[in-house]
Design a protein that fits this description.
495 residues, alpha/beta, Amidase signature (AS) enzymes, 8-stranded mixed β-sheet, 3-stranded mixed β-sheet, 11 strands, 39% helix
């Protein structure tokens, strides 16, 4: 396969690539070969930090030999090359550093349930993507692997913690890649990189076999995509529960990929542009993007009402900080087991060490109080949304931020999140409440950088339907960054 053909295939979304394979126009091996050519061309992005080429080539060969692609029985994603985030998507026998120097030689002992579902869907896994240490940052610039470059500009972060996946998708290396979201880690990279990023509702997927939930329910796992239908098809692949899960979400009325083909009935949508947290005013370009989206939704027959749900910002910021400190003690313990000694401060990122240090002295009462605060603020938030079908808000309060902002150590973990929330604003509310939330790339700055707008709701179906409508009304499929594979490179990794 020549490079021009590889670039042409990279312009096709995941559902489209699978359809080509099912029609016999291309094999799984050829789809993977094309992805490998694109990855080689995009190495300067530093998006993929673990190559799993041999396992991907064997999986593709097995799919082609089985003949299942031609029957259609393998599903709408079979044969499509796919990348796993190097956190929360473990694959037995594969390196799993989680962005941490302390775990640079760590290898996963088991395969995550969600990865098993990806493999069952026929997705061909051939690499793992860059992530900040333990997913702590809404940027991707770990000291272990170095920063991932945003294909839109080497001066702005690709976001985090799923920044490696986002950069790979935004550049056209793959059509989709996995992600996880604890305070915005799918939606922030989606906004920074001009992608679709859906955080599912709490309980939609399983954390088996290693856990029942992440960050006491704040974390959800899904993917970064360029199209809404790819996000829907991937959610179909992973929705469900494993035996023994502590809780689950009710199953959808119909497959998500089928649901997005039908426009929704008229929805009542609350719109807010100001942040729920103290801090600077929302950037005018972001406000414009939200208001424009509201106008388009009104033209589509939906009712928009302005208003800002009120929450106790201090209570939420304190709770998120406490839950992160305790979670980072788990990293500390894992590192101790892996290293065979007590980890030292220089084994971790400076901001991680602040969280670990606080977590080691966090009391049980503080931990229980954080969980109670999350539940109390969820109820307060939900009561104010009674009568509305969705909430329309910014994804980020600013254009894509620069490097060396969202990963820096502060005096305390709470101070760290105060800085993060001054940029991210609404994203953490979806994690705290357990609501589904989707970022769609409908806006742009005056100099052409992407701006995401976010829709939140208790369930994913209405979000995917609304996003599909916006994808038609405000098409983003033709927008390509300067770093799109096949275009001249804008330079190497940010220094």
């Amino acid at each position: 396969m020549d490079f021009a053909d590889a670039v042409e295939l990279g312009d096709v979304d995941a559902v489209g690539q699978a359809a080509l394979a099912a029609a016999g126009e291309v094999t799984a091996a050829e789809l993977l070969e094309a992805a490998l050519l694109r990855l080689d061309a995009g190495r300067d992005l530093n998006a993929v930090i673990t190559d799993l080429f041999a396992r991907g080539q064997q999986q593709a060969a097995d799919l082609d030999a089985s003949g299942v692609l031609r029957t259609g029985a393998a599903g709408p994603l079979a044969g499509v090359p796919f990348l796993l985030k190097d956190l929360g998507a473990s694959l037995a026998g594969a390196p799993e550093a989680m962005g941490s120097r302390a775990l640079r030689t760590h290898v996963a002992a088991e395969t995550a349930w969600i990865v098993e579902r990806y493999l069952d869907a026929g997705l061909v896994v051939f690499g793992k993507t860059n992530t900040p240490e333990w997913g702590n940052h809404c940027t991707t610039e770990p000291s272990l692997f170095g920063p991932t470059v945003n294909p839109w500009s080497p001066d702005i972060t690709p976001g985090g913690s799923s920044g490696g996946s986002a950069a790979a998708v935004a550049a056209g290396i793959v059509a989709a890649a996995s992600g996880g979201d604890g305070t915005g880690s799918i939606r922030v990279p989606a906004s920074c990189c001009g992608l679709v990023g859906l955080k599912p509702r709490r309980g939609r997927t399983s954390f088996a076999p290693g856990a029942g939930h992440g960050l006491e329910g704040l974390v959800n796992e899904h993917a970064l995509t360029r199209t809404v239908r790819d996000s829907a098809a991937l959610l179909d692949a992973v929705a469900g529960t494993a035996v023994g899960d502590p809780y689950s979400a009710p199953p959808p009325a119909e497959p998500y990929l089928q649901a997005v083909a039908t426009p929704p009935r008229s929805q009542r949508i609350l719109m807010a542009t100001a942040s729920p947290f103290p801090g600077p005013a929302t950037d005018p370009a972001v406000v414009t993007a939200v208001q424009r989206t509201a106008s388009v939704l009104e033209e589509l027959g939906h009712a928009i009402e302005a208003g800002t749900p009120r929450i106790d910002a201090d209570a939420i910021a304190d709770a998120v900080a406490v839950l992160h400190t305790v979670s980072n003690v788990a990293l500390y313990d894992l590192a101790a087991e892996h290293l065979g000694r007590q980890p030292r401060e220089d084994d971790f990122e400076p901001s991680t060490w602040v969280m670990i240090r606080e977590g080691l002295t966090t009391s049980g009462a503080q931990y229980a109080g954080a969980i109670a605060a999350v539940h109390a603020q969820t109820r307060r938030f939900a009561v104010q949304l009674v009568g509305f079908d969705a909430l329309l808000v910014p994804t980020l309060l600013t254009p894509p931020p620069p490097y060396r902002l969202l990963d820096q150590p502060r005096a305390t973990t709470r101070a760290f999140f105060d800085v993060e929330f001054a940029t991210t604003g609404w994203t953490s509310l979806a994690n705290v409440t357990g609501w589904a939330a989707i970022s769609v790339p409908v806006g742009e700055t005056p100099d052409g950088l992407p701006i995401g707008v976010q829709l939140m709701a208790p369930d994913e179906e209405i979000l995917l339907k609304l996003a599909a409508q916006l994808e038609v009304a405000l098409p983003w499929a033709g927008r390509r960054p300067a770093g799109w594979i096949g275009r001249p490179s804008f330079g190497g990794p940010h220094k």
